[in-house]
Amino acid sequence: METIMTPIPPEQTLKVAILVCPGFVPMDVFGAHTVFGISPNVEIHLVGKSTDELMGVPTWPTRATTSFADCPDVDVLVVGAIPHEVVDDDEVLEFFKAKAASAPAVITVCGGAFLAGAAGLLDGRRATTNFQMLDALADVGAIPIVGGRIVIDGKFVSAGPVTGSFEAAFAVLERLRGIDVAKMAELTIEYDPRPPYGVGTPELAGPEMTKASIEAYGPLATAIREHARRAFLRHRTAASA
């Protein structure tokens, strides 16, 4: 599918919603938060069920700025990795699905793809996630893309590596605000990753280290996979009823 993100005039405030919840992974959304947050005329909402304090993983106390009930329609919807019980939470799924329907762009990073998938939003679409559970995207109807740092399918931009949070945001910012704005954001934060050990992908790390990482991630991946598939099938059944 072709990219269908429609540019938004610079005089119009660009509204971005980033999902937060107990157990969310802050590093997955920091890139998008930074890239959009330093760009002109942008309004950012950290959205959650409530605005009570919550804990991200690893230890990162924070709180939503906007509740689901108070969240306006947004131009960009962002989600990073979240716990398996949130992936299968109907209130979260319905909120995400509703906001994604009107948003010109949706960004998923790492395990965040499984929330979009569980809501039926990636059914038949190309997508990526972290390598430890890439194959599981098929369980929610997506077409897993191997080796893609970011994958763009229509208005959906998915990222695998944590740096993909920045790169997905740059890609969306370019399409919604123009390449000059995206370039300025890149320069402003001096985005120029230089990995010190050169093992940041399975191809670079080799089979032995990759296998160890997949095994260590196994219990978490299994839980997310099972809950996402269950929610996906439930939502697909409801949609066809």
Explain how this protein is built.
With 241 residues, the protein is α/β, with parallel strands linked by helices. The protein has a single domain (14-191, 199-240), classed as Class I glutamine amidotransferase (GATase) domain (Rossmann fold), CATH 3.40.50. The protein has 8 helices and 11 strands. The protein has helices spanning 27-37, 84-87, 90-102, 113-118, 164-177, 179-188, 202-205, 207-240, and strands at 14-19, 42-48, 53-56, 60-63, 66-67, 76-79, 105-109, 126-127, 143-144, 150-153, 156-159. Helix 1 links the parallel strand 1 (14-19) and strand 2 (42-48). The model has no long low-confidence stretch (mean pLDDT 95).
Main beta sheet, described? 7 strands, mixed
- Sheet with the most strands: spatial strand order: 5-2-1-6-7-11-10
What do we call the CATH homologous superfamily?
A: Class I glutamine amidotransferase (GATase) domain
Return the structural class.
alpha/beta
Q: Which descriptor suits the 3D outline?
A: globular
Write down the CATH class. Alpha Beta
CATH architectural category:
3-Layer(aba) Sandwich
Radius of gyration of CA atoms, rounded to a whole number: 17 Å
The CATH topology turns out to be Rossmann fold
Number of strands: 11
Secondary-structure element sequence? EHEEEEEHHEHEEEEHHHH
Strand content: 15-25%
Low-confidence stretches: none
Can you lay out the helices and strands and say which pair or pack?
Blueprint: E1 14-19, H1 27-37, E2 42-48, E3 53-56, E4 60-63, E5 66-67, E6 76-79, H2 84-87, H3 90-102, E7 105-109, H4 113-118, E8 126-127, E9 143-144, E10 150-153, E11 156-159, H5 164-177, H6 179-188, H7 202-205, H8 207-240
Parallel strand pairs: 1-2, 1-6, 2-5, 6-7, 7-11, 8-9
Antiparallel strand pairs: 3-4, 10-11
Helix pairs in contact: 1-5, 5-6
